[in-house]
Specification:
Two copies of one chain form a homodimer. With 340 residues, chain A is an alpha/beta fold. Chain A is built from 14 helices and twelve strands. In chain A, α1 packs across α3 and α11 crosses α12. Chain B binds a DNA duplex (30 and 30 nucleotides) through α2 and α4.
Chain lengths: 340, 340
DNA sequence: ATTCGCTACTGTACCGGTCAAGAACGATCC
DNA sequence: GGATCGTTCTTGACCGGTACAGTAGCGAAT
């Protein structure tokens, strides 16, 4: 059986191909009864609907938005914060009638998703700003929104007030009386840090520098999960160990707490720990984690709103969502025996 | 500035459009020096590469595989097992040079991703077998692989030995001496159960029926997270409460353990609990969870292999991955005061 | 000298739709 | 009663590529 196209249906019914197209795509352009007849004939021939690829070419849009992430996608799924972001983005896109296409970074494979996959717009999420994939996207002139990235000129951006949040975290410790503070983050070299990590580092320093506190910084990669534990251990297993620690993420904070416990330190009596993100882990952990809250679903929704705007020709203003301090039970004044 | 196409480059260089196409897509079809000249001209004109939408139409493939999930995507991301599956699928696809497009269920919106988005094949994951979206996919004759679904005739399938795993779980309790067993699962009506839930129910019954044990079944929806806790509470807060419980998932098992603790019951001394899936939660929980292990990354890889095979015209045999019992510390003989 | 076989390029016909402008025709208006 | 209008359908061009069957040129084999 030959492939069924608009033309075959048109021939069958005895109308022009365009009329059949309208029957599917613009029902108001023809009489209801003819439309019925056409749909019936289409059904009879086993026609499902206009071919998406052909339609994409003719219309100039595909109905799908890309999401560029570098690093393996599984990291993004396993991290609670980025998974929540993906969830929010995909739900919001689907509410607006669009699908989400994940664009893996190309590495050095010949297939470059950022260049070779048809999408109407792209959200750039966790991504090295110098990556080749990003370069392709820019040359393609695809509508683009960066999320958790430095907002460059002319590129719409959705961010969280990472620096402000980090200030709140540091202030909280300083206000409690901590004068010896550790930092558990991704990298020591500021040049290597991704945008949120850099901003958070700046925020901690804003406050600690002003308070005359010189933090001890340890760095750890995301993977493997034990790396953060080891880094925290190296921070805490020394005579001049800090009384308080600010962390890049809740996951790092939990690793720090575990490291502390393994050294026989009690949290928060002997050590205060502040996380970041207020992920699901934070409230559920024992002790519940003092952390900086960011509204990840709102970030996803804002990102979709921004890309929709850009795709419609708009130039949305940069969005910066607020962060707030959530005090739970992992922080206390230094050496506070009354706590718990 | 007019849009740059193969034709504009061809005119510029003075060759045919086809040769320019070959310069990008089949380098072996022309001399290296001409190719250089063409690429240089393309670069100069700001040409990024063949338009993906046009290429998709002409070649008949898009470079993207769809994943059909019904329910909101955020549920899929928040559940540890499905998130791990998505992660494995996306990584494996990207290794094979394909992108992953998430096809949200259409609800009753006019936009039906399963019908209107161009993909080369589709993985059907968590999905009501009677859903309209699935119907569209079938009529489209898109290459398709079902995962965690009943394998119907002619449709490639990747599954886990859910029934066998459930048998192992029930056997474990029976072998420990339990004669009063509870079940915490998704639904009581077998007709309503999704495939893995039905299979697991069958597996539990296989063993319990043979042992003359009549289980007490309670049902709970996935959402909200407290529902499972409440269901477990209703199971345990009664005079004839079971001494052992098998659960549909690790998440349900953890909820059951929390419910038991809130009633002052000790696990496993007063109550044995068996999970399912061996997700990241299982080993990390306190007490560590006895559970049925399934290899989720392997499932993802097998699913991608199967869809690649089907897309290539093959008819892969159904895959059923094994499940194994992992005994940790949430199970013990009934009323065993020596444990822990 | 003819034939063969390569390599390197070209010509033409699609892929399956949508867009924008136009034509046929009965209804409406003044 | 002719101009205007809206509805309904048609026409032709175009979206930006790829497949496939040539063809020209040229050195090697017969």
């Amino acid at each position: 059986m030959a492939k069924v196209t608009l033309q075959s249906i048109a021939d069958r019914v005895g109308v022009s191909r365009m009329t059949v197209s309208n029957a599917f795509s613009r029902p108001d352009q023809l009489s209801a009864e003819l439309r019925e007849k056409i749909l019936a004939a289409a059904d009879e021939l086993g026609y499902v609907g206009p071919d998406p690829a052909a339609r994409a070419l003719a219309r100039g849009r595909t109905g799908s938005v890309g999401l560029l992430i570098n690093g393996t996608l599984s990291e993004a799924f396993e991290d609670a914060v980025s998974a929540a972001f993906l969830a929010a983005v995909s739900d919001e896109l689907s509410a607006r009638g669009m699908a989400l296409t994940l664009l893996p970074s190309s590495g050095n494979r010949p297939f470059v998703a950022a260049r070779d996959v048809a999408v109407d717009g792209v959200l750039v999420y966790i991504c090295d700003p110098t990556s080749a994939d990003l370069g392709w996207l820019e040359r393609r002139h695809v509508p683009m929104v960066v999320v958790d990235h430095h907002a460059r000129d002319g590129v719409a951006a959705v961010n969280v007030d990472d620096r402000g949040g980090a200030r709140l975290a540091a202030e909280h410790l300083v206000d409690l009386g901590h004068r010896s503070v550790g930092v558990v983050t991704l990298e020591t070299d500021p040049e290597q840090l991704n945008y949120p990590a850099r901003e958070r580092m700046l925020g901690w320093h804003d406050v600690l520098d002003a308070a005359g506190v010189e933090p001890t910084v340890v760095a750890t990669p995301y993977q493997p999960p034990t790396a953060a534990y080891d880094a925290a251990l190296s921070l805490l297993d020394r005579p001049d160990r800090p009384t308080g620690v600010v962390c890049f993420s809740d996951a790092f904070a939990l690793a720090t707490i575990r490291a502390a416990e393994s050294l026989g330190l009690r949290v928060p009596t002997d050590l205060s720990v502040v996380g970041f993100d207020d992920s699901v882990l934070a409230a559920a952990s024992r002790p519940p984690l003092t952390t900086i809250h960011q509204d990840v679903p709102a970030k996803g929704i804002a990102a979709v709103a921004a890309i929709a705007d850009v795709m419609g020709g708009g130039h949305p203003e940069p969005v910066v969502l607020p962060t707030t301090l959530v005090v739970r039970e992992s922080t206390a004044p230094p050496g506070d025996a009354t706590s718990r």
